[in-house]
Amino acid sequence: MTRHAEIDLTRIPCHVAIVMDGNGRWAEQRHQPRLFGHRAGVESVQDVVAAASELGVQVLTLYAFSSENWKRPVAEVGGLMSLLKTFLVKELDKMLNNNVRLTCMGDLPRLPSEVRSTLEQSMAATAGNSGLTLNLALSYGGRAEIIQGVQRIARQCLAGQLSPEAIDEEVIDAHLYSAGLPDPDLLIRTGGEARLSNFLLWQASYAEILFSPIMWPDFRRRAFVDAIVDFQGRERRFGKTGAQLRAG
Ligand code: FPP
């Protein structure tokens, strides 16, 4: 791949999460239907997955469909589901060749059965891969994720398997959809809006957040590398002072 002089390959963020926003406005600017924007957005997905994999990012979480997106017009929801299924079918060979492991998180039973079965097949086929984990957030909502986790924890407490005092960050982490994945280091939202939209509410506590004005269909490899360079220029203090960090 073309490398950019300013990127430090020894300090690549372990987990990058992206809110891929702006497909609809990108299409409207071109007097095209919204699905035209989503289709162009798939090309950005392909580009960014390839770049993440080549740069050594360990986990890339993409917010592909939120729990709120079910409220969109039926034709747009259907179009997105069909794009997702086509993407999964077309990309499987590439994922296998590039050592990419596919995972997903969200309220998966709400997905159409043919999307779910394609997802399950691709996840099973790539489960042994050790390169990039491509984690798709589908029918995902951060609050719903926390609610289902809390319900499971409460049931364990009621059954006497867990004491309330034993509930700590690790217990909560282990009951989220994202169990087993590290927290995101860098969270990018494209499309010019500056909000989280119910994405990774627990996990993003210490993520560096980058709001990019670029619409998702225009967010390609170069923009992704620029986002990582921006991340590398930040000082992550995790509540400490800069002086404490420099003192080690
Ligand atoms: C938000 O843009 C984007 C989505 C709701 C869907 C994102 C989906 C893709 C990029 C394609 C399918 C995904 C994969 C992984 C193959 P928006 O429609 O809200 O844009 P707007 O804010 O400009 O209206």
From TrEMBL:
GO terms for biological process: polyprenol biosynthetic process. Mg(2+) binds at residues 21, 208. The active site is at 21, 69 (proton acceptor). Its cofactor is Mg(2+). Keywords: Magnesium, Metal-binding, Transferase. The keyword Aminoacyl-tRNA synthetase does not apply. The keyword Magnesium applies. InterPro entries: UPP_synth-like, UPP_synth-like_CS, UPP_synth-like_sf. Its EC number is 2.5.1.-. Catalyzes the condensation of isopentenyl diphosphate (IPP) with allylic pyrophosphates generating different type of terpenoids. Belongs to the UPP synthase family. This is Isoprenyl transferase.
